[in-house]
Amino acid sequence: MHLEHEGIGHEVGVTERQQDCRGGRQWYVLRARSGMERKIAEQLKTEVSRLNYGELIGEVLVPVEKVYQLRNGKKVSKERVIYSGYVFVEAYLDERSLDFLLNFPDVYGFLSMARNGDPSPLREQEANRMLGRMDELASELELPVEPFQVGDLVRVVDGPFNTFTGVVSEVNEERKKLTVMVKIFERKTPLELSYMQVEKE
Fold it and tell me: pTM of this prediction?
């Protein structure tokens, strides 16, 4: 997958320093405000262009997957962020780019830090997986993935308990199943539901 911005490359007029920066860019993972990942990514791209930081910061990505839910008997698709709270950035880190990323609104720092305090880039294998096989990120890239957590308030969107709301009491990531406590006839009852049958409130 080729992900370079239009105009980035070995075009005539690019300085030697710019080529060095671009050749030295690596992928990093930023910790960002959950639910704001795509907005933050768009804002980052806008500011990179405005500040002419294109030689320092290349692609900004938020991996998403298409998920399906049954609503009123119909299968509906939507995009879901695979890694809630993370934004992937291809960057050459120097004083300017590091300060820019660390002080960007709703960004809380880098996911991984080396012993000397410097941000750690993704390993080459991880970066290649992200670029070449986005649909396999959830199972292969070594980052925490948990679309639902114990305590989440969810609404049932499919099945006999459609429209009921409840609280997640157990998450089975391997089976993609949840145990949800719903109130039925004034009594809390555990229901085992698949990820497709619920959505977060």
Answer: 0.57
